[in-house]
Amino acid sequence: MKNYVILGVAYAFLLVGSTSALSPQKVEITEVQGPSFQSPLAGQVVQVSGIVTAKDRYGAWIQGDRSDDIRVSSGLRIYGSLAVKLANVGSRVSVTGRVTEYRHDSNDLYLTELDQLSAVEVLSTNNIVEPLVLGVDRTPSRSRLSSFDVGPDGWLSLPNNVTMLESTNPTLRPEEFGLDFWESLEGQLVTVPLPTAANFPDRFGSIWVYGDWPVVGQNQRGGLTILADPDGIPPAHSEAILIGRALDGTRNPKTMMGMKLSNITGVVTYQYGNYYILPLTAPDVLEAPPAEVPPSTLNSSIHACQLRIGDYNVENMGPRARHMPRIAAHIVGHLHTPDIVFVQEIQDDSGPRDNGVVSANKTLTALVDAIKKASGGVVYHFVNIDPEDNKDGGAPGGNIRVAYLWRPERVSLVPGTIGNATIATQPVIVKNGQVELSHNPGRIDPLHPAWEETRKPLAAAWQTATGERFYTVNVHFSSKRDSSSAQGDARPPVNGHAERRQSQANVTATFVRSLLEFAPDASVIVGGDMNEYLAARAVLHPLSTVLHDANEVAGVPLQERYTYVYDQHTQEIDHVLVSNAIADREGGVEVEHVHVNTWAESYGGRASDHDPTVVRLWVCDPADSDATEELGADHGQIVL
Ligand SMILES: *[C@@H]1O[C@H](CO)[C@@H](O)[C@H](O)[C@H]1NC(C)=O
Ligand SMILES: *[C@@H]1O[C@H](CO)[C@@H](O)[C@H](O)[C@H]1NC(C)=O
Ligand SMILES: *[C@@H]1O[C@H](CO)[C@@H](O)[C@H](O)[C@H]1NC(C)=O
Ligand SMILES: *[C@@H]1O[C@H](CO)[C@@H](O)[C@H](O)[C@H]1NC(C)=O
Ligand SMILES: *[C@@H]1O[C@H](CO)[C@@H](O)[C@H](O)[C@H]1NC(C)=O
Ligand SMILES: *[C@@H]1O[C@H](CO)[C@@H](O)[C@H](O)[C@H]1NC(C)=O
């Protein structure tokens, strides 16, 4: 056995008059880590010993004896070329260096490490460190991420960014809080038994997984849903962990939601705003879920009053969009050509070109033509209102907007005058006490500051083939751009533009309320991309006070309510909300989120980033409508 002692760097320090001690304090790794987020020894030069568990291009990880105190990690990152040169996996080493709290970005959490290494001495080789088995030795917390995520919506509470975790540096409570749990294992070697992937890889090839331990909101596919549980705090899914790039240079598999992987062993670290396990070697795929996505079962309607309504964010669709035929195929094959389709992200006729064009007639014509072709003849009509050029956010020049497609044999717009970009439509009472919209369709309060730089909602008054009225609002609220990492320093984390979405929900709710004041029994459907979970109750509260979530009325299991996958979460950010009249009507409401995109085999294999939804509901009572027989003849046509 050879012992290496490297003192060159310490000597250099002495020459420049560094304060680095000649005989540094000998401490245990657990004393370096301590029971808080930050080291009690930060800034001090210490000598520690431990067994090397892992290595990368910049340093290594060492592990000492475990503490009985679960708050205190026994692993440590050692950073620098001396570690790269001398710390080989399995060696017991004595390391002298400075305790440092490092972070790359001001919203990151700190990683405790030893840098400015002055000595790395190999004491013995071929030692073995048994990894801690997650789910057996220690089980990830499923509760709040942090003690500072106060408020009824947990990590989604408003106001957010109230406390900076690192400036408070609390003592860890690993059994209660997710960040505390992973921090208490920082630098340690752990195994994730029987991992399941929760998402596609991110753009760096990192993958979110959870292991063989209890999780919250697990859907049937294997993803983890942000539940909008009326009695609970929305889960932050800190029981899932990111698997970073493998330390031996092997590549992580291209995962999809629900994919089963081989056991992962690696070291716990923090980087790029999240806790990670850096695997010693990349896992293998053991089992992929079925590639086939079943179509909706809501394939027909039995009556003029019973409508099927689709909702689909078609992701930046211009007239020549390559994904258009696939979107059309989804509307036909998976949604069975609903009676009305709410679409979002229709680009103008010049697509992404920033040339002053705002009309989307060509785009919408191309889409309905593609549907006609895919279905063998189903004809949709369409309507939208052109925004003012570059006033509605999104990619410059794209002028994305919401639009309606509908099947004229099933429904039609109540005759009226279409609005424009700046006119606000209003509910008005006309003869017989019937409610119309001053512009049909029309935008809701388009000059309200809530809509600055974003898409305005499109309200419409409709009639069924039997002349019964109902109303819709198609929305696309501001995105979550500028959110901070949920595992970052700001607590609760920043939910980008949440106040703006709250205000947009409020303006939309005010409109619906004014309509219901005239006609309390009106059938109203508000749908679209709200870029927010109902679990963020404070944000969508204005709408929740006046409308019902169709999922709730339909009794869709909480964990199956999702249209999007982001980080480790499946989440419902596209919603269909209905008025009392629809919620209470006999016949009920049925909802299916059709997972054509969140279940795709690869990130690039998706047609859009959102899943479409189809609902079947009654907008009038069959008894109030005398056209059951007339419709018999039509019925064959509408079932496709
Ligand atoms: C993976 O972990 C499971 C659960 O702990 C264990 O039963 C299994 O033997 C492990 N597989 C391998 C190949 O180590
Ligand atoms: C519609 O769906 C039902 C239930 O899934 C199925 O039994 C029926 O065959 C389907 N009909 C058509 C026309 O696809
Ligand atoms: C778009 O189509 C509508 C009718 O569908 C028409 O009234 C309008 O003039 C068209 N706009 C343009 C710019 O062609
Ligand atoms: C909308 O119509 C109103 C009334 O006709 C008009 O004053 C306004 O300029 C129009 N707005 C746009 C953007 O065309
Ligand atoms: C949180 O607020 C502080 C000011 O108190 C600000 O400096 C910081 O950038 C904010 N964090 C995020 C992630 O927006
Ligand atoms: C919602 O809108 C109403 C009516 O315009 C207003 O009084 C209230 O302050 C708004 N609330 C929020 C949270 O924006």
TrEMBL record:
One of its GO terms (molecular function) is catalytic activity. Keywords: Signal. Gene3D superfamilies: Endonuclease/exonuclease/phosphatase (3.60.10.10). InterPro entries: Endo/exonu/phosph_ase_sf, Endo/exonuclease/phosphatase. Residues 313-610 form the Endonuclease/exonuclease/phosphatase domain. Residues 1-21 form the signal peptide. Pfam families: Exo_endo_phos. Residues 481-503 are annotated as: Disordered. This is Endonuclease/exonuclease/phosphatase domain-containing protein.
